[in-house]
Design brief:
The protein is α/β, with parallel strands linked by helices and 331 residues long. The chain contains 13 helices and twelve strands.
Length: 331
């Protein structure tokens, strides 16, 4: 797979790396790894982002300070204008066309490679020249790091790139506590040899004061539903990070096997779902039009009220559990 990707990069005029909408550390870190491959092969590379809607703003700013990343972050519209018949689009951290940052860019590129660790859904990018799909990988950053080990030396990877990739692994494994295997730690060891500093990586995950208060407020509103499932509902638009972190922290309670957090934002109602392994939250999230993996998933419900989204979630949980009873009303 590494050789195939290397040949594709060699035969391309330029490389675009693009993740899903609202890209996180795993998406941006993996895209940075793709840029490192292109730099080693002497090909221009660009990361396609919406800089106003991202969960990895700190990593993007860190990379932007490097001379190698000057003018490297571009919008989907700029990428469409720049693309030619020999351009290669590398889609990372998703394989569903409706979830990529720009479907227009996806359909305008003749050469597409997909690197993803999520379970294949009903819809997927079917015309990919290369498809590195590994549902058992902890993260897309782990997959890209595996490819890097065959395509360049540790010294070829910039420290900020190595830390971005490590941040992606830390995010999707919850600091190496879930979905980890021997390959995960081998990838992390390679990134450490490339200069990644774990203390610098953990700085990406620090909260400001207001986000910390918002997270604990969500946890305070959580209620046990059944079968170890906890649901928390907040009517405050606190962004995407505090609800996701609240869902993570709820799993630290001994009685909890899965957690679901519903919160509003300007695009509708957001769902953050986490599991310790007994409940496949990806299957439940897919019933709501979302996705992810068995331990970490999410969904977006545009045009729904909190009460409507809550009942849809209850119905999906009951369907997953094989039950038909109605859950308690949200407070």
């Amino acid at each position: 797979m590494a050789n195939a990707l290397g040949e594709l990069v060699n035969d391309s005029s330029m490389i675009f790396a693009m993740g899903h909408r609202m890209p996180d550390f795993d998406s941006v870190g993996a895209a940075a790894g793709v840029c490192a491959i292109a730099r080693k092969r002497g090909r221009p590379a660009y990361i396609v982002v919406d800089q106003e809607h991202t969960l990895a703003g700190d990593l993007i700013e860190r990379l932007r300070e490097l001379p190698e990343y000057e003018n490297l972050f571009i919008s989907p519209q700029d990428a469409i204008v720049m693309a030619d018949t020999r351009s290669l689009l590398v889609v990372v951290d998703t394989s569903r066309p409706e979830q990529v940052l720009s479907e227009d860019l996806l359909f305008s590129c003749n050469r597409v490679a997909v690197i993803d660790h999520h379970r294949r859904a009903a819809t997927y990018i079917s015309n990919a020249t290369l498809n590195f799909h590994e549902p058992y990988a902890s993260s897309t950053s782990e997959q890209v790091t595996e490819l890097l080990q065959y395509l360049l030396e540790p010294s070829d990877l910039l420290r900020a790139e190595a830390e971005g990739l490590l941040a992606g692994i830390v995010l999707d494994t919850r600091s190496f506590s879930v979905r980890t295997g021997s390959r995960t730690f081998e990838a992390a060891a390679f990134l450490r040899r490339s200069g990644a500093d774990t203390s610098e990586v953990m700085k990406y995950f620090r909260n400001d004061f207001s986000s910390t208060i918002a997270k604990h407020d969500i946890i305070r509103k959580a209620k046990l539903y059944k079968c170890g499932i906890v649901i928390a509902v907040t009517d405050q638009n606190v962004g995407r990070v505090p609800p996701a972190q609240a869902a993570d922290e709820l799993l630290s309670i001994s009685e909890v096997s899965a957690s679901f957090v519903l919160s509003p934002d300007h695009q509708g109602i957001l769902l953050s779902a986490r599991s310790s392994g007994d409940v496949n939250v990806q299957l439940i999230s897919e019933m709501l039009g979302g996705g992810g993996n068995a331990a970490s998933a999410g969904a977006q419900l545009p045009g729904k009220t909190l009460e409507e989204a809550y009942q849809i979630l209850i119905d999906a949980i009951n369907q997953y559990l094989g039950a038909a009873e109605t859950g308690p009303e949200p407070s």
